[in-house]
Amino acid sequence: MKFAVLDFETTGNQSADEIIQVGLAIIEEDLTISRVYGSYVKPGVPIPPFISQLTGITEADVADAPSVEDMLMELVPMLDDVVLVGHNVAFDFNFLQNALDRSGYLPFSGRILDTLDFLKICFPSLTSYQLSQVTAHFDIKHDHPHQADSDALATAYVLLQCLEELNDLPLITLQRLSELFAEEDSDLGWFFDGLCQRKEQEPIQDLNSHTFYRQLALAVEDWTEMKPPRDESDDNPLTGVDFKEYLGEIQKRLKAIMPQYEEREPQSIMFDEVMNALEQDKHLLIEAGTGTGKSLGYLIPSIYQSVKQQQKVMVSTHTINLQEQLRERDVPLLTQVVPFPFKAAVFKGRQHYLCLRKFEHKINRRDFYNPKEDTIIAAQMIVWLAQTENGDDEELNLGGRGGDFWETVSSDSDSCLGRGCPWFRKCYYHRAKHEAGIADVVVTNHSKLFTDVKAGHQLLPAYERLVIDEAHHLEDVAGKHLGLHMKYFSVVHTLTRLYKDGRNGQLPVLRQQLQSSGQERAGDWIASIDRISEDLVDVKEDWDKLSDSLFNLLPERNDASPGDSGQYVLRLQPSKWPEEWEALKAIENRIHVKISESVRRGEKMLAEYKEDEDDYSADSLITDLSGLFKDMASERDDLRTFMNLNDETVVYWMEASGHYRSKSLQLYAVPVDVSKQLKDLFFDKKKSVILTSATLSVDKSFQYMIDNLGLQEDQESGRLITVQLPSPFNYRDQALLVIPRDFPSVKGSVGDAVFVNTLVQSLADAAVATHGRMLVLFTSYRMLRQVHEPLKNALASSDITVLGQGVDSGSRTKLIRRFQDSSASVLLGTSSFWEGVDIPGDALTCLAIVRLPFQPPNHPMVEAKSELLQRQKKNPFMKLSVPQAVIRFKQGFGRLVRTANDRGIVIVYDTRVIESYYGKYFLYSLPGPKMEHMNTEKMVPRISEWLHEG
């Protein structure tokens, strides 16, 4: 097998565009690269400026280049008897076929392989499959990205990396891949078939590297073999050791592995405060800014408490990212420095774990919704099983439709066979549960915390002490979980998994099995299935009708981004139904009746079938079906609760995006005030709850959090301690905050011409002074759009790129990566960029805040909370809007200084911070940067001067 790796640079990506450069790398059968060919090509049309910017290829480069015909005379002989390879090969292949055709050659008819497919299959956990990211990951030298010869050579090295990886996989894994692609009749099928034949002739490889079970190779042993961290018969390693001695030993070991480690005063205070709260059975609110080292600040005392008292400590985070950081970074470090064996386990929501039984069933039956994509995803997962120890979806980069695929193979309680499942001892969810059971500290997330409470504490191991990180999100998550949240697609998924059409869905599968079973009651059951299937088709029609009608009630919000999930929002109030509501309730009633009838019929049939049959393959199908009937019943109940609109203490609203219209519909019913439930569920029940975050206080006071989380009684009785840690950074030297005091003001979410022009001019000047490296935070998407184009034009001559959230393609993570990778760029972001964005070092020098981040006052949740406060004779603006905005403002400010060496500037364009009576709350809540206000024209000279002082 000889490979030719091809790459073209072109004037665009339409078939009418022209080739401007070609690169080809030849890989011989012994896997050496024998030659790299590269040539510019004269396109006969001008090269668009953005292509020159991307590739660095100019008109001058191609002026004397060969024509396409001349280039092909050299290229075609090299394509004889090769397998053609490219990164996203369809693009290059189309250009090749076009060029061959136009120059009178026969089309290329050999095999074609795509390194994108190989990367996905061989490295299912890579965070990006972009060529530049992949070469960086593998340390492949890639001198000139977007130049054809450099790209072709880099792609050749990537292919070799994949071939090496495939060679190391167990034979059974390759056989499964070969089987998977065989039916596709694709070049991948041909390739894997050849690979297997070769591998089958080699002597048997090391059989100890994997566990082989039911035709799959796994990276883990049975979880029943897992031992607790310490032997029960051993003495407690902390007998007679006080916290100070234990901490001293850890710090000594930290210094030994990390010579740069130094004790930081705020972290030392945090160790003591957390330890004190755990020992004294008190609750603690502790604000710890960036750089405190707060994860170690609570993990080190938690391990001490847990091991010494032999009682678990639960740690909860808001984001999966932080959970992963604790797993990947902090726990391995502690394993090295804690002077005795301990275990910290990460335990997520059940849907994050793969169900091996469902996965086996899916690939054996090729139950694929979208064969081409699903085959690649299944292949990724077969390889991943030979690598993963956790079976957790966060490790996989599934792309596009991967989420839908995952939903059909993820673990869930309704379809779990428990000990009756042949995969039970290998099960990833039960492994995680067992590990949490024997661990000293368990790391979970807020969502799972509340799911556990709702499930009567059946999910998490018992705990008396709880640490809540990212605690400023607790109230929000509580509302969503203690309330109700329904999506259009969650209902559709349940319906189509039961019955999609005559051939697809679990009911048709059971029907086929019954037809060939010769069972005496098969006829009755088939009749039941047919009745249920008809009813489900009606339910789907009615659900579509209801969703369309609900969507049509929604007005468009004027400040949201297109496709934003809350672009269309409507609050519904118990006392004021829309006039169409009775008609909509009639549709809901039909849905309710039909689902109830189907569930009753279905459960009766399954119960009879279970009595008669005793066969595992049917057993798993029956379990899945009864799980789907349960899901459908709970969706039916949720829909009724929502449509009844009868609880005054609940906020009801609907959201959708214009992009997918009624298919993106989401229904919410959330308690207005969760403080009482939080108090009952956590603060009254648990011995000690520690809440920490970088943003818990407003104007140096914790009162807002205390009121909203239900901690007033504990505050009065002295059971609550509040601590605001000093900042570890020297903000006076590291951050300068400037306010242009004569800046025009703005009403609403759209700026007038004067405001937009002044803002664009000022941002452009500041961007030039800080060499790009600037993050601009907006509160409204419409204003971001108003600024994006003019700012781009204003900076075009300075070679500073402007990236806009929602305007330039790509997710938040991709935009941040592009921002970090480019030497000079300005990133414009809205709501999701105010927090959780970590851009340390020089990539970010200037943060511009366009408006103070007040929540839109017409958001249903904000409205309802304001009404509640008014009824309590409190001022909603001061009690709700200002504190919420201050916390977001502090989160935004926290993006700037991430390490002790960062220096940067914050510009606040909203003059309300110095003109209004509430502005001081924003400024006093910051950790002490240098603050100055001046006229707009003096700002840029001052910024340049300050940057040069550093």
TrEMBL record:
Database matches in CDD domains:
DEDDh
Residues that, per the record, bind ATP: 288-295
Q: What is its EC number?
A: 3.1.-.-
Q: Name one Pfam family in it.
A: DEAD
- UniProt keyword Glycosyltransferase present: no
Q: Where is this motif: DEAH box?
A: 469-472
- Family, per entry: Belongs to the helicase family. DinG subfamily. Type 2 sub-subfamily.
What protein name is recorded for this chain? 3'-5' exonuclease DinG
Q: What is the species listed in this Swiss-Prot or TrEMBL entry?
A: Paenibacillus dendrobii
